[in-house]
Amino acid sequence: MRDNEVKRTLADGGAAIGLMVFEFGTAGVARMARAGGAEFVLYDMEHTGFSPETLKTLLDSARAAQLTPFARVRDARRASVSQILDLGAMGIMVPMVESAEQAREIVSYARYAPDGTRGVAVYHADDIEPDGIPATLAKANREVLVIVQIETAAGVERCEEIAAVPGVDVVWIGHFDLTTSLSTPFGSDAHRAAVDRILAAAAAAGKPAGSLANDVAHARELLAEGYRAIAFGDMSVMGAALAAAFADARA
Q: What is the spatial distance between Cα 6 and Cα 97, in angstroms, rounded to a whole number?
C-alpha cells in the first residue's frame, strides 16, 4: 500500500496543490499534471459523465504517473464512497455534507473494520503489504484521505461538529453551492460570514480547509487566508495557458 504523501503533507501543516478534472478525462492529464508539479489529481464524478469504468482508467493512469489520485463521488452513499476507493482512489471528496452523523457514516464507508464498514477489496498489486491482507487493510485505513464539502446553509449551521468528526481529514468549501444555498452573492457579508465560520471550525478541529481556485491570483488569496488544500480546475488553467500561448505567438 503506497503512502499518501498529500495526507502526510497536510498532517504536517503544509499545503498541497493539485488539479481537479472536470473535462479532460484522458490518461494524459495525470502525466501532464505530474510534470507540471501537481501533488494530486481530483477527478469529479458529481458534475461529469465519468462512469466507474472511465474513472478506473483515470485512477490507474494517475497511480502510474506517481500522482496521488482522489475522486469526488456523486453522493454520500456507501456504494459511492466504497466503490470509488476500490477502483484505486486514495481519497474521496463527498459533496453537501450537512451533519456530524453523515460525516461519521462517510468515514466508516471509507475504512475497513475495525475502524469502519468498508467491504474488503484489494485489486492493485502495489497495494498488497508484505505482511499480508491484515497489514494491507490497516495501512489503507491510515492512508485514505476523506474530504467533506460544506456548501449548504445546513452544513454551515453544523460545520463545527462536522469538522470535529474523527477521520475527516479536510474541510472543503464549495463556494458556488454555498452562495446558492444562502441566496446571497459571492463575496457578500453573509457569504463571508459563512466562510469565516467554516474556516474557524476547521482550524478549531485541527483540520486543513480546502477550495477550488479560479486562477493563480485566487490561489494566492486562498493560501493567505489559511486554506491548505487547493485545486485548479482543468478548464480554467488550460484555457489560461492556451490564451497566453496564442497571445504571445501573435505578439
A: 22
- The type of residue at 202 is A
Cβ-count burial of 119 within 10 angstroms (0-12 exposed, 13-18 middle, 19+ buried)? exposed
**Is residue 122 over pLDDT 80?**
no
Pairing relationship of beta strands 229-233 and 170-173 according to DSSP bridges:
unpaired
Q: In order of start, what are the domains of the chain with their CATH numbers?
A: 5-143+211-250 (3.20.20.60)
Question: What secondary structure does DSSP assign to 15-62, as a single string?
Answer: -EEEEEESS--SHHHHHHHHHHT-SEEEEE-SSS---HHHHHHHHHHH
Distance between CA 76 and CA 127 in Å, rounded?
A: 25
Q: pTM for this one?
A: 0.95
Which residues are identified as catalytic? 47
Q: Which region, left, alpha or beta, applies to residue 206 given φ > 0 means left and ψ of -120 to 50 means alpha?
A: left
Give the single-character DSSP code of 150.
E
Dist CA 245 CA 96 (whole Å): 37
Cβ neighbours around 138 below 10 Å, total: 17
Is residue 151 classed as helix, strand or coil in its secondary structure?
A: coil
CA angle 183, 189, 192 (to 5 degrees): 90
Query: Using an 8 Å Cβ cutoff, are 85 and 93 in contact?
Result: no
**For residue 70, what is the enclosing H or E element?**
strand 68-72
pLDDT tens digit string along 46-82? 999 899 999 999 999 999 999 999 999 999 999 999 9
> Which amino acid appears at position 127 of this protein?
D
